Structure prediction request, 511 residues.
Amino acid sequence: MTIALFDVQCGFGSATPGCPELLSADTLLGEMDSVGVERALVRTLPATMVIDIPWSNHHLFTACAGNPRLVPCPIVAPNSARDLAPEHLQLSEAIAQGAGAVVIRPRQDYWSLAPWCCDRLFTALQTRRLPVLCQTSELSYEDVAALAERYPTLPLIIIGADYRSQRILLPLLEACSNVYLSIGSNYIVQRGIEQCVETVGARRLLFGTGYPDVDMAGHISQLMYADISDDEKRLIGSGNLDRLIQGVQR
Amino acid sequence: MSMLWDRVRQGQPLSDVEVVDLHGHLGRCTVPAADLSVETHIRTMDRIGVDCAVVSHTHCMSWDATEGNDEVLAAMRAFPGRILGYVTLWPGDADAARREMELRVSQGFVGLKLHNSNGYRYTDPGYAAALDLANERRMPVLLHTWGDAPTFEDTRALAPRYPEAAFLLGHGGVLAEETYIALAREFTNVYLDPTMSRTPRGLWERLVEAVGAEKLTWGSDANFYSMTPHPGKVAGAKISEEAKRLILGGNARRLLERVKR
Prediction:
């Protein structure tokens, strides 16, 4: 029986700076077709080359428009320097364009996670229940925990966790019920999926890959060979992300 | 896409192809993992359809190789044919290393695994006797490499000196891809084992194109991390079904069958 897959951790653009191959949304769809991924929450990548937030979001929305398999995940940031749209308008625009989540990049976009800088943004996100992707290169696990405590009904999704992090991830997931974990690159912990499912339940894990940095196939293999039930695989494969997106206040 | 990928996508064992993990580990290291038992390792192999895993102990990164080899031997005896062993050595005492190698070969270990995190070059005299024996027995010698110049220099020195040994360059190709390709092309007894946690997109396709599937072996590096992602990386690659069969097990079987027991 095939488990439906909804990739929470992928995108298009380029794999890494210096990579000559540019990847379009169609390239991403081709990869999804070849390995059997039905839908994807997509960003423009790599983050370090995505330097213009409004332009990037516009490009993302245009690429995803009319294709229900691609759900956009735009970048949001505090309007603390009065250079972006007000926070509530950023979210209205994202939701109007069909966003299933947003991504934040406090380091790259030079803002602070302190409440005096970003409370307006996170309060608006929590009101909308719009899931927030938290890349480990942009936020520490302590940052994620602090946000989770301040905004306890806002879903926070960790992406980019690595295989050495289980001593931190497991208690973080236990302590913060609104934190979710992508099992995409580079989370390949020995029996890590099984341990998380046993400890906090399958509802807290989301299937992800890390494409285009890596191929999708390895992380599909990881989920399909996990020592958990098919029902748990279905939740992780797509059910949990569907549930989070359905919870967005549109 | 392919029969093998369809199996992976369904979570079914790769039961109609031989799968041999040539880069496995037993034992604890700094990376946390809740269950490192051999029994669990075997159960994971069963779920995937891995016929056999050749393992070294994580103490290959430390100074206490002997106890690690003892644990590997116990696993070999508990699961004959499913778990095979690489000898690991501490080269600080050359005579002791020679004796340890001789003992382990007599106990049925099939290869040698060297890791340079102990601060020793692979050309260190402390390894010479073991490499002599590996060459005489036509064993696979798995070298930990990470795209660094010293391991490339050592490979260039060792491959012609020990022409009957098969040198597997662990993590070969994940960094400094062109240098690894050049080594695999230059030496008939050098193979690439591109296991990595974050395998770059398209690596398997590029390596098959550059050196041929016959020069590539498959390994998981489990239990350093999970075995489960790694079969899919090969099965899902855009390479021929025959290339996948060679990489997943055909090449390994050929290398293991030429070992003089």
Chain B has a mean pLDDT of 96. The two ends of chain B are 40 Å apart (CA to CA). The CA atoms of residues 191 and 215 of chain B lie 5 Å apart.
